[in-house]
Amino acid sequence: MSVFLRLILSLYNLLLIALGLFCLSLSFNYGVTSEEIVRFLSNIPNRWILGLGGCGMVLLGLVLLLAGLKSEKPRYAIISDAPDGKVTITIPAIQQMILRSARSVEGIREARTEVRKAKKGLLIDLFILTNYDCSLPEVTGEAKERIRKHLEEMAGLRVSEVRVTVDELPARPVVR
After folding, report:
1. Which of 45, 92, 140, 152 sits most deeply, having the most CB atoms within 10 A of its CB?
2. pTM (2 decimals)?
3. Under a CB-based contact definition with an 8 Å cutoff, are residues 12 and 60 in contact?
4. Cα–Cα separations (whole angstroms), residue 153 to 97, 139, 150
5. Start-end of CATH 3.30.70.1350 domains in the chain
6. In 80-175, which ranges are continuous DSSP H helix?
7. How many CB atoms lie within 10 A of CB 26?
8. Which residue, among 5, 12, 1, has the nearest Cα to 56 in the 3D structure?
């Protein structure tokens, strides 16, 4: 659940606590009398305000209920699920393996990646910055092959697709 929804949930809970305390004070005849409530409700604008507040609370409650029921995406991939136990690897660990493989390709200067689970394996988006004088088809093809091979050999993961995007090309060769 996002920080914003957690904040709203906290405020909503505080409002429910205040409403509960108000009901308790009414039941013990402490503070507000029933005549004052009747007088408050006899005024039409007060009824509208109370009705709109009630609708807002119901809608907010439904939104928070649905947000709480929504399942989190798993942040891992299953390597093996045998009777003697399950072996998993986290998505950040997979990303590190991908970046290590990509940066080992000659011609790639920088790389970043996004990994998602697909039905037939992992879907990998690789964003690279290349050297000025390299062949893009060769560099991207080599990166895709190394990533696929590395993940399959080292972690036993199936890769359904590796998509490579060249983010930026330097304007001229880098002098070192």
Report:
1. 140
2. 0.57
3. yes
4. 11, 21, 5
5. 76-168
6. 91-103, 136-155
7. 14
8. 12
Are the C-beta atoms of 169 and 128 separated by less than 8 Å?
no
Question: What burial class does residue 103 get, using C-beta atoms within 10 Å of its C-beta: 0-12 exposed, 13-18 middle, 19+ buried?
Answer: middle
Architecture field, domain 76-168: 2-Layer Sandwich (3.30)
168: β partners: 129
Q: Say how far apart CA 81 and CA 79 lie, in whole Å.
A: 7
> Under 8 Å CB-to-CB from 91, ≥6 apart: which residues?
75, 76, 77, 115
For the chain, which ranges sit under pLDDT 50?
none
Q: What confidence score (pLDDT) does residue 71 get?
A: 64
pLDDT of residue 142: 96
> Cβ(112)–Cβ(164) under 8 Å?
no
**What tokens appear for 169 in the block?**
């090309």
pLDDT at 115: 92
DSSP string, 58-71: HHHHHHHHHHHHSP
- How far is the C-alpha of 82 from the C-alpha of 85, rounded, in Å? 5
